[in-house]
Amino acid sequence: MGNGFLLQAIVYLSAAIVCVPLAKKLGMGSVLGYLIAGILIGPFLIGAIGEEGEDIMHFAEFGVVMMLFLIGLELEPQKLWRIRKLIIGTGFSQVILTILVFFGFSMVFGMSWQASLAIGMSLAMSSTAIVLQSLKEKNLMQSSAGQNSFAILLFQDIAVIPILAVLPLLAIQQVSGESADHQSIFDSLPAGLQTLAILGAITTIVVAGKFGISPLLRIVAKTRIRELFTASALLIVVGIAYLMALVGLSPALGTFLAGVILANSSFRHELESDLEPFKGLLLGLFFMAVGASINFHLIAENPLNIILLTFGIITVKVLILFVIGRFSKLSADQNMIMSIGLSQVGEFAFVTLSFIGQLQILNRQDTELMMAVTAITMAVTPVLILLNEKLILPRFGVKETEEKQADAIDEKNKVIIAGFSHFGSTIGRFLRANGMNATILDHDADRVDLLRRLGFKVFYGDATRVDLLESAGAAEAKILVSAIDSPEINLELVKIVQKHFPHLQLMVRAKNRFDAYELLNLNVANIYREHLDTSVRMGVDILKKLGFRSYTLHRAAQNFISYDEEAMRELYMLRHDTNQYISASRKQIEMQEELLNNDFVKSPDMNDHAWDIDEMKSISK
C-alpha cells in the first residue's frame, strides 16, 4: 500500500507539472490546468489513479480541510465588521434567493419538499477555492467585483453551519447503521435531538478551542522550535476535524471553525506564514481531485440531461447574481465578473450531497447525478471566466484588458517607489526636490491619471508582478521603497523582492507596530511606521508652545524615535506571550522615559531654560 500511495503521489505531481504551465501559457489560469490534469489521470480517462477513486476523495477532503482552515484564519472581527453591509446585503440575498429559486424548480419537477430544499441549499454555494484563486491571479481582489464576491463567499461559508444542522431534520426516514456510510455518536437520536446535539457539539468545540488553543500555542511558542509550532497547528486542525466527524459533521466545517477561532489569536500570522507553503499545493490537489471525480460513464449515459442541468444551474445563478449586483450598484463589467465568477456550485456541495445521500433524502442515482453536475460546473468556470474577458466584457463597451494593462516603463533609476498615495508621494516629492529621481509604480488607475495631471511621472502596474519589476529596472536599482497602503500587499511584495531581487535594499511602510512585527518576521531591516514621526513632531510642537527650545526638543525627538525603534525590536521577540509582552512594555516605557529625562537634563540648552526638570514633569502629569 505504501508503494501504491507513492505512485499516486508521483502521478498527481507529474500531471500538475505538465498541465498547469501549459494552461498558464495559454492564458487559462492555474485552476483550469489542475482540473484538466485531474480529468486526464482520473479513473474515467487514463485511469492512472485507480477506478474506485477512494484516494481521490481523500485528497479532495484534505485539500478542502486545509483551505477552509486558512480561510477561517483570515476572518478577523475587524475585517468582518468593515464589510458587514456587503456580507449581510449581497451575501444573505444571494444565499436566500438561490435556495428559494432552486427549491421552486425542484418542486415543479416533482421532487419532495425535503429533497427540493436540500438541493436548493447545496446549489446556493459557490467555490471559494476557484473564485478566490481566480480573483487573486487577475489582481481583482480589491475591485468592486472582488469585494462583493468575497462578501458572498464569506456568508456562504458561515451559512454552511446552519445548513448542515438543518439537513438531519429533512431526513424522510431514519438511516440504519448498516446502510449509512458514515456514523456519528448521535445516530441513535431522533432527528430533532440530533440537530440540538450537533449545535451543542459545535458550541463545545468553539468554547474549548477559544480557551484551550491559545494557552497550548503559547507553551509551544516558548520552545522557539518552528517545526513544533507547525506540528501543533496541524494537531489542532486534525483534532477538531476528528471531533466534528464524530458528531456527524464535515471535517472541513470543523477546521473552518478552528481557523475562525484562531483568527482572534495573537498566533494567527505565525500560523499563516508556517502553513502558506502547503496552501498552493493542497489547493492544486483539490482541483485535480474535482477533475478526476467527474463520472464520464454517468455523463455518457445521460449526456443531454446533464448538459441541460449543468448550464441551467449556471444560467440561473448568473441571473440571480446579476440582479443582486444591479441592486448593489455595480458597473456592468464588475457585475459580469462577479456573476460569472460565482456561477458554479461549490466544493461544499460534495459535503452536503454526501450527507444528503447518507440521510436518504435523495436516492443514490440522483445524488451521483448532482455530484457530477457540481464537478462539471466547477470545471467549466475558468473557461467561462476566460470567455467573459474575451467576448462578453467588450460588448458592454468595457476594454478592461486594454485599458488596464501595465504601462511600458521607459526609465530606470536607483530608487523604485511602489505605491504613490499620500505616503509614497511625500517621499517622491522630497527625493525630487533634492535632485533624485525615482521610478514610481502604482496600481490605482484613477490615482495615476490624477498624479500625471499634477506633473508626476507615474507608471501604472502591479508591483507584485516580477516582470513589471524587471522592466522597472529592479535588477540594476539599489533601493525599493514599498509605500503601498495595504499591509498584506506590502508583505507579498517583500517576499517577491527577497526571492527574485535579493540585492535590493528594502525600505517598507508599516501602519503600526504590529505590521512592523510582520516585516521583522521576514527579516526586513528598514521599517517606517506611518504615525511615529508625525506623533513625535506634534509632541515637539506642544512643548514648543509651552516654552521649550527648538534645538533641545529636536534632540529629544530623535532620541525618542531611536529608543522606540530599539524597544520595538526587543518586544518583537515576546509578541506571542501577552503577559511577558505587557511586563516588558512597561519596563521599556519606564526605561525610555528615564533615558529621555537624563538626556534632557544634560542638554546645554537647559542652562538657559527658564524651567527645571521638575516643572517639566509636573506639566506632563
Outline the structure in words.
This protein is mainly alpha-helical. It has three domains: 400 residues, Up-down Bundle (Na+/H+ antiporter like fold), CATH 1.20.1530; 120 residues, NAD(P)-binding Rossmann-like Domain (Rossmann fold, 3-Layer(aba) Sandwich); 88 residues, no CATH class. Helix content is 70%, strand content 4%. The chain contains 27 helices and six strands. Strands 3-2-1-4-5-6 form a six-stranded parallel sheet, with helices on both faces. β1, α19 and β2 form a beta-alpha-beta unit. The longest helix is centred in the first third of the chain and has 32 residues.
Shape: globular
Mean pLDDT figure: 75
Q: Report the CATH topology name of the largest domain.
A: Na+/H+ antiporter like fold
Intertermini distance: 74 Å
- How many individual domains? 3
Q: Tell me the number of helical segments per DSSP (H or I, 4 or more residues long).
A: 27
- Spatially, the strands of the biggest sheet line up as 3-2-1-4-5-6
In the CATH hierarchy, what is the architecture of the largest domain at level 2?
Up-down Bundle
The major sheet is characterized as: 6 strands, parallel
Oligomer: single chain
Structural class: mainly alpha
C-alpha Rg, in Å? 28 Å
CATH C-level class of the largest domain:
Mainly Alpha
Secondary structure: number of strands: 6
Helix content, binned percent: 55-70%
- Fraction of residues in β-strands: under 5%
Which consecutive residue ranges, at least 5 long each, have pLDDT under 50? Answer: 174-182, 397-404, 604-621
